[in-house]
Amino acid sequence: MTWDMLPALLPLLALFVGSVTVLFLPARRALPFGAWCGLLVIGLIWWPGISSEVPAPLVSSGGFAKVCTTLWALIGAATCLLANRCCLNRRLERREFAALILFAVFGMAILSASTSLVSLFLGLEAMTLAFYVLVAFNRENPTGAEAGLKYLLPGFLASALLSFGIALVYAATGSFDLPEAVLLSAAVAPMSSVALLGWALILSAAAFKASLAPFHLWTPDVYQGAPSPVAGLLASGSKGAVIAALLGSMPLALLDPMRPLLAGLAALSMIIGTFAALPQTNIKRMLAYSSVVHMGYLVLALLADQQTGIQAGMFYVITYGAATVAAFGLVASMSDSGGEPENYAALDGLARRSPWRAGLFTCVLLSLAGFPPLAGFMGKFVLFGAALESGYLWLVILALLSSLVSCYYYLRPIIRMFNVASKEGGGAPVNGGERLVFALCAAVILIAGTYPAPFFRLVANMLP
Amino acid sequence: MNGLLQIPALSVLLLLPLVGALGCLAWDRRAAIFTILLEVGIALTLPSEGGAVSSWIRYEDWQWIERFGARFSLGLDGFSLLMVWLTLVLMAVAIGISWFRYQQAGFYSLLLISCSGVLGVFLAQDLLLFYLCWEIMLLPLVLCIALWGGTKRIQAAFKLLLFTLAGSLLMLLAFLILFLLHGRQTGDYSFALQAVMSTAVPPDLAGWLFACLGLAFLVKVPVVPLHGWLPDAYEEAPTAVTLLLSGVLAKAGVFGLVRLALPLFPATWPDYTSLMAVLGLVSIVYGGWMAYVQTDLKRLVAYASVAHLGFIVLGLAAGNAMAMQGSLLQLFNHGITTAALFVLVAFVERRTGSRKLGDLGGLWARAPHLGGLILFFSLAALGLPGLNIFTGEILILLGAFASRPWWAVVGMVGVLLAACYMLRLVQEVVWGEPRCSETIADLHRGEVALLAPMAGLVLWFGLYPLPFLHLVHNPVENMLVHLVMKGGLP
Amino acid sequence: MIVPLGHVLLFAGLLFVAGLAAVLLRRNLIMILIGVEIMLNAVGLVLVGASAYWRHPSGQLFALLLMAVAAAEISIALALVVYLKRSRGTIDVNRFDGMKG
Amino acid sequence: MMGELLFLIPMLPLCGALIIMFAGGRMSRKLLAAVASFSVIASALTILWLWPLAAPQTRVSLFDWFEAGALRVPVEILFSPLSAAMALMVTGVSALIHLYAASYLHNDPDVRRFFALFNLFVFAMLIIVLADNLLLLFLGWEGVGFCSYALIGYWYRNPGFAAAGRKAFLVTRAADVLFVIALLWLFRLTGSLSIATINQQATSLPAGTLTIVALLLLAGACGKSAQLPFSSWLPDAMAGPTPVSALIHAATMVTAGVYLLCRLFPLISLSPTALAVIGLVGTATAFYGASCALVQRDIKRLLAYSTISQVGYMFLAVGAGTVTGAMFHLITHAFFKALLFMVAGAVIHLAAGEQDLFRLGQLQKRAPLLFWLLLAGALALAGMPLTAGFFSKDAILVACFALNSPWWTGLGVVGLITAFLTALYALRLVYLLAADRDVTIGHGPLPRGMIWPLLPLGLLALVGGQLNLPEPWGGGTVLQRWLQTPSGRGGTHAIEWGLAIVTLLLFVAAWLGARYRFRTLPMPPGGGVAAFFTDGWKIDALVRNAVSKPYEATGRLLDGFPERWYTAVLPDWLGRLCQSAGRYFRTFTSGYVTHYLSGMAWGTFLLLAILLIGLLR
What we know:
The structure holds four protein chains of four kinds. Chain A has 19 helices and no strands. By secondary structure, chain A is an all-alpha fold. Chain A has one domain (about 5-460). The radius of gyration of chain A is 21 Å and the shape is globular. In chain D, about 70% of the residues lie in helices and about 5% in strands. A two-stranded antiparallel ribbon of chain D has the order 1-2. The interface of A and C includes residues 125, 136 and 157 of A.
């Protein structure tokens, strides 16, 4: 490790240093600092003066890693901005909150940039450790602690599975490096079944993080119990980072025996997620099941040819991330000291009380449902196209069916927002930070849906 | 084409309603009226501008998404022009009839968004753009039903959404497969309709893809076994939405069939003509039969609409110039007549508070103008010569008889059934001893102003349809030439 | 290497399954955590064995890393245990079923 | 240039209709009647003015109605001797009936609608008469159908009357369906819808096809002309005001079917089978109508059945190959039947709306002039020698017997029997109306406007035979020479005279019979047999039970299943199925973290199992 690797590591270091520094700031500055820190990281990544030509060990600094880190930093910054209201409402400790968010982003950045199973493990654990605390952050609330427990124990089990998987892969191939370890797995004939066993275990752990069925059971409870901004970060950032790691550095689909596993996970997620979301009446739980479905779609990107898969998958992560952050952000922005408006009933007449929120929420839900001309449609379109190209017709048909059925649960809240006459007075006004985040998300949703060319150029940069 | 100097009228036409929709929300619902008037103005100037060199009256083309070679290309020929006119007329009527009933700007905003989608469907020359517009036209109307509909509005809205969306997802799948196939064959990944049309699709696959597209479009029309969404959606929807569903969205289904399904899979078409004709005939007979036994006025008109749409499908299946021209013309005719009937039903309901046949009667004694217009449009709907529906029907029947006589013979039964159910409506609503209260008012000036242009169009298309037949002549000829060249027709 | 890698894997596998059984079958939070620790120890065993097999130190380094991570995890978990015990008076995990469906 | 003026003939009544429709709101009752009558009279005068154009067959085209593929439908008028004669008859009789109607409806509140429709009817009828293109003809065909519908239901407040209108429309529509099929077929065969072209090309058509087409055309004609089996609408159509019955359901519209067959005679005549069937239908209907007319109690229904019967003669004429005979009887029938209807209207008016023959009477005392007019009409109908009806009916029967084949001779004999029945019921009408009994009296004296339009018709009913007086009677066969249409095989003098004698004997027999049976106050007919005839051989009930009721009942059944089931029950059920699947999947998220852990373990096992299966393969 030498000094000329520093530019490549600078964004990661900035995140880490930021997460420590924020603890020493005044509480009211902590969350804005977190947001600025995210922007700083983005600046460090793209500042032309800093050339990261000498690669660092364990993490890459290529285009893929850059875009991913940018994404997570943006989402992290948005989470900081959105968290302000809920921290104030419930008197949560803002410094620690900001520090944990930055640390989680740090973990995600490592995870998606990892070039070795070691850094993968490290990133995943760093991220998850931060989330264990974040999920249970609202500990005054009994659901907060319960959510913490329900994330912690499966998380532990997943860590164990992951590390055992890594150990088996290492035992079989003698390498931690990615993607060599994958490629070697097919080559080491006598040990390849051990390696495959290892990959399957790693996949289960990843499926837990990405909440693919049947590893999804924790998701609704944790989303419900966690503060909404955290749930947003969990849904968009943490899942996105896991998918990005699978897409970028772990081309499991190259191992033929792994393909049915991926396909099975995708199919189960789509089916179970879609149906289980139907009877929901709690917004956050509905979004949780919806995220299960979306992760099922994203698995299609893993199955596709790697080049198109990365592009389609990351484009989808962007569109899904924008919509999810906005959705949870909206829930957070409507919270008051009594808690968050979780049930559909709380949405009744929102269009009267707060038309902009209702409008944005409509856009977000329609985008999640995949209606053109919103980003979600374009995302699904490229994703399904990629899967079709690699011959997964049956999965695409299943995905189309699931999109069809899912319209029902996305439209139900919309109808309630506009349909029922207002019951209470107007909600609290949207503050500046939230407005910024919402505007950004809305812009992404609309532009990526109508004129996605810039986004495609962006994800095209990510190809190795 | 050289869009630098000229105003890109088609793009303006397409995007203006969106601006209008924003205007409704941001300023006032009056923006909707201005928008639609402006749109009508643009649409009326369209034919004068273009040259008659190619079959396109206008064509506009922009880069859109390079990654899949999707282009923002819009083309206007006689057929699309007719459909654009129909859309704008009915949109104006829809806004007009809702004006005093719904005060919320959101309603008009949604109508305008849908309008934009419909225009896009009629103009798009790119598969992706077409699909985009196809979805955009549907969802706002679904929301309108769900938010402003009758008592069972939510179920009705979801039924409409899920039925038609199931179809359109099949269409998306077909488009994707076609796109990939074309890309693999030529190395040029493109969604442009002209490009994709040249793809050599293996016959087996072509059959499947055609079935996908056919289902997508026929659900929207709908023909009879695919009409599950229709009765409830039509019944529960606000009148503006009902008339747009029957007057415009149904047309988009047939339009898609003519513009996409046929040209894309010309060689497959002969395998499906019989099925299409049978679907058309089943719609005619079954729709007519069901219309006869309905007790709700709106449902009666809804089934009548299905029956009439069956003729249009039959005309397409007949596959000769006469029948096709008849079908295309009939799209306009049916749009006007059915919309007018729905408007009249709304007027009746507004006055008497009921749509049940048993509660009505003797309208002539109380409101002769209303009764007279119901009679007039009913006569149009039952195919009285000299009124517009007859024009299309006779051409379709002549054409159908020329290709398969028994199709036309069964179709003729539908003509008889039309008389049965329309006269039943007139009998129960217009004639008889008045059952409604003394005080109901006849049509006021605004309502007459809404219906008079439609009545005028009914007469115009009935008595002098020639200009419009010429308008669709070239598109039909081009398509037939294409079909013949690709082995779609002997 | 005296012990063949296969034996190490087999033993570690058994250990892992034992830990998994503890995780799955116990409802006491502490016992579940102990189960996870057993599983992690199985992992360490594989890593060290494989490291010896491949004559490569990276496996052992990973084992050390794993211990650190496990320590961090367990500390968070124990904090939660203490909090739950104090607030709800129980560490039976199935008593925490406020959210479902 | 003169040719274009021909369009004035139909356009004048149309303008009248439009003026009344759109500007009639502010017109006085008299002005309305004046506009309506004037437009028709002007039309009639135009025909007379342009009469010279008829002999050379003037053809004028205004604009193209349709043009698509091979189809070209010009809006074209053919002013030929046949159409000119028919048009003159239509406008002439119409003009008289318009004038009559002005008085008849002198206190009806809704007279504007009446005259608008009446004028519109004349327009549509003239289109039928003058059109050369079958599609344009069909425009008029359906136009008169609509006017008939609206005028039968003119007193719309009575749902029964409106229903009668609907029935008329639907029954004729059913026949029109067959007519249109013939039209489609002809287009497929000849590539044209012009009557002239079709007639020209008819010889090149295959015989079997030709027969079927001719029979389809016959069906269409039967619908409009109320022939069997489509006859049942006409008696009900009497619900309309009497001038409507006189004009539409006696003089003009119901003869449109005959006219159509006459126009297409060159085509039809190529198929002997079709001609035989036409003759059969005509004879059967003639007998049927007469048998029913014999027992009717309602004066207008009697006349309606009589019309059915008389139009049957015209069909018989076409079948026997004498277009001239058909046209001759058509014209004379228009005179005496219009007259009879208007007399009936006047009688009903006098009796304050009473239509039951057994409650009417004393006509010669209360209105002697009217009685003489009635007598003129009835005698013409009965075919008393030297009246118009005698000559025109005889011409038809002569043509039958002249064909010299058992089939036609048989039909002729039935025609003779029918003639006897006709005379019987015509004289029965006279005797009953003249009967001396207590009658309702209403409305005061008869308006003069209701009498004098009858005088010319009365005259024509008596002497109209001069139009086409047969040769043996020293006549000049004016009509025949003018029309230049086929008039069948000429009868020998023996047949002519023999038939005249037989007819005379039959008339006398009928007179004696009627005198014996109806002179003294008779009882109304009763019993099952009479009811059978009164109800028109129960055809109505048959159709109702065999067609309408099953149609509606089956429709209702289908509306329940599959329709409601498919559109409502099935989607709901699917929705519930999805919801319950959702509830099932929800139960996995049980809230117990141990279950979540097991879920993960099971998931891992599942993945390993899939892997294992994959590896084992």
